[in-house]
Structure formats: C-alpha cells, structure tokens
Amino acid sequence: xxxxxxxxxxxxxxxxxxxxxxxxxxxxxxxxxxxxxxxxxxxxxxxxxxxxxxxxxxxxxxxxxxxxxxxxxxxxxxxxxxxxxxxxxxxxxxxxxxxxxxxxxxxxxxxxxxxxxxxxxxxxxxxxxxxxxxxxxxxxxxxxxxxxxxxxxxxxxxxxxxxxxxxxxxxxxxxxxxxxxxxxxxxxxxxxxxxxxxxxxxxxxxxxxxxxxxxxxxxxxxxxxxxxxxxxxxxxxxxxxxxxxxxxxxxxxxxxxxxxxxxxxxxxxxxxxxxxxxxxxxxxxxxx
Length: 288
Prior knowledge:
39% of the residues lie in helices and 14% in strands. It is an alpha/beta fold. Strands 1-2-3-4-5-6-7-8 form an eight-stranded parallel sheet. It has a two-stranded antiparallel sheet with strand order 9-10. β9 and β10 (285-286) form a beta hairpin. α3 (86-96) packs parallel to α4 (121-132) and α8 (213-227) crosses α9 (247-258). The model has no long low-confidence stretch (mean pLDDT 95).
C-alpha cells in the first residue's frame, strides 16, 4: 500500500513573506523545511507527500517547486495564482503547468474578509482557467459560509476537482455549530467533483492538543458516510499540527480511526484517493 500525506506545508522566512506568522503562534514562527518532516515520514512509512500553499504570493509557490525538484518524496505541489486577476493568472498558469509536479491551486480564503470571494465573477474567470488546465482546487473553508458555498461553486465548475481541506474544521466541542456543518458537508458531498481531507481536525473549543481518536470519530464517520473512502484522503497538516500534539500524535490517532476500515477502504484514504486526485506519479506513471 502506497501511503501519502496529502496535506502539509513548508516555509522559509528568507524566501517569501508569510504575513499570518508572528510571535503569538509560538513554535510555528520559524522556518519549517522538508528535511524536518522526512524522518517522521520514514517512521510512518509514508512514501509521498502533497505540499500545499502557505502564503498568497509567487515566492512561496516557487520555493515549493524548487523543493519538489530536489526531493522526490514530494509527489504534488498545490500553489497560488492570482485568481482574481484572470489575465495574470493565465500567464502564471502557463508557466506553472510546465512543472511536472504542479497539480493545483489554493487561495488563502481563510485570511480574506469576504467569505464569498470564491464566487466573485473575476475569481470565477480564474477558476475556469484552472479547470481548463486540468488542475485541482484546495478549499480551506474555516467559516460556515465557506462550506455553504462549496456546493454552488462545484455546480459552477463541474469539471474542476476540488477538495475541502481539514473537513472544513468540524465544530469539535462547539455543538452550537454542529448542525450547520453537518448540513453543508452533506450538500458539498453530493457533488461528485468534491473531495475532502481528513486533516487538521483539532478542537474548536478548548486546548488544541486535548483530543484523541474517540473525539474525532463522529466527524470522521459522517464524512465517510457522505464521501466514501474514494473521496477522502489523509493529511497530517504539518507543521500546523505541532500546535495540537504533533505529527506522531496525528498519525497514531488517525490510524485508530482508519483501523475500522476494510483493507481496500483504508488503502484509498491513506493513499489511493490522493494519488488519483493529484495524479501523483507511481513508478514513473501518473495514477489513473
């Protein structure tokens, strides 16, 4: 079974600007390079990874692509293009699609004041370019409205494979938000071009590191019911997960969740889905 970490980050503060970082984020407020992650991947037996956008600038994407050139463990790169500037986005996509591991884009909507940014007409033009290029879209939906609009976005762009990062942050220990999350996740899952990442599921209420598989199980089970294993993929969310116990805790507790799956289902969630979604090369061939 090929294991894939479908969601992690890297950043080098000398290479790009990361405006969201600062002293208040503690252990995150420093460089995080792929060499720090590799020993933990080896320990877990994870063969490939997907490195995902950390900042809305060209420099961050260029840094990730350079790492992919130097490290064959990186199977796919999800970068950034200015979707709200379609002419510029078209030029940039023409450059990026020349890289053999550039597979998708992610805009930092979680830092934008407008929760409906993805529905703007100019952004729609940019997304149509991404769709035409055969790329994917990661949606980091942290607000209720973000998840609400996924179904509409998927209907507007039915040929664009999109994935909801971190299961749209389930309202763990926030019962007042739970019904809306359940309803909106189910609506998104009814669109066949929408996938989801089992990643970043840390408590919305209380200490971030106070969690285990039992706490996550109702949210994972619901996602499994709606998406099925063929549209779910595991991601560590390293190094963000260092705020919630670290990579090893994530790997241990998520595997408790996955132990309830059959062998074929487990294979999909832990690698097969990501390989197909991001067309990760296996033995020199892209996954079908």
